[in-house]
Amino acid sequence: MSDLAQRECVPCKGGVPPLKGEKLEELARQLPDWEVVDEHHLRRKFRFGNFREALDFVNRVGELAEEQNHHPDICFGWGRVEITVFTHKIDGLTESDFIFAAKVDNL
Ligand SMILES: C[C@H](O)[C@H](O)[C@H]1CNC2=NC(N)=NC(=O)C2=N1
């Protein structure tokens, strides 16, 4: 398990640069199931056996988002859920996005 999952998302007030380059790659290596898209957001696709299982997972992700005050975009349908996360305030990635993704991996 990545130790990212033990940490807490922190609200971003802006004024920090989005993660890029080597620092971004180092974090990405800790979450091999997530794609880093355009150095801008993280994305992972999940598959389930039916609509209900996908919906239950969406609700668990939603509870985590409220608990962490860090909210992903969620796209879902029968048997599939796609999670996208980035930090809106800076329109890019921060450590909180990786922390959130690691916590999703542990659900
Ligand atoms: C004030 C509050 O912390 C912010 O609006 C939060 C809420 N949830 C958020 N979720 C995500 N994914 N990115 C953010 O920048 C963000 N900002």
Automatic annotation (TrEMBL):
Which organism is the protein's source?
Rubrobacter xylanophilus
What is the name listed in the Swiss-Prot or TrEMBL entry for this protein?
Putative pterin-4-alpha-carbinolamine dehydratase
Q: Which Pfam families match?
A: Pterin_4a (PF01329)
Please indicate which superkingdom the organism of origin belongs to. Bacteria
Molecular function, one GO term: 4-alpha-hydroxytetrahydrobiopterin dehydratase activity
Enumerate the catalysed reactions.
Answer: (4aS,6R)-4a-hydroxy-L-erythro-5,6,7,8-tetrahydrobiopterin = (6R)-L-erythro-6,7-dihydrobiopterin + H2O
- Provide the taxonomic classification: Bacteria, Bacillati, Actinomycetota, Rubrobacteria, Rubrobacterales
* Stored SUPFAM superfamilies: PCD-like
Spell out the family assignment given in the record's similarity comment: Belongs to the pterin-4-alpha-carbinolamine dehydratase family.
Q: Which Gene3D superfamilies match?
A: Transcriptional coactivator/pterin dehydratase
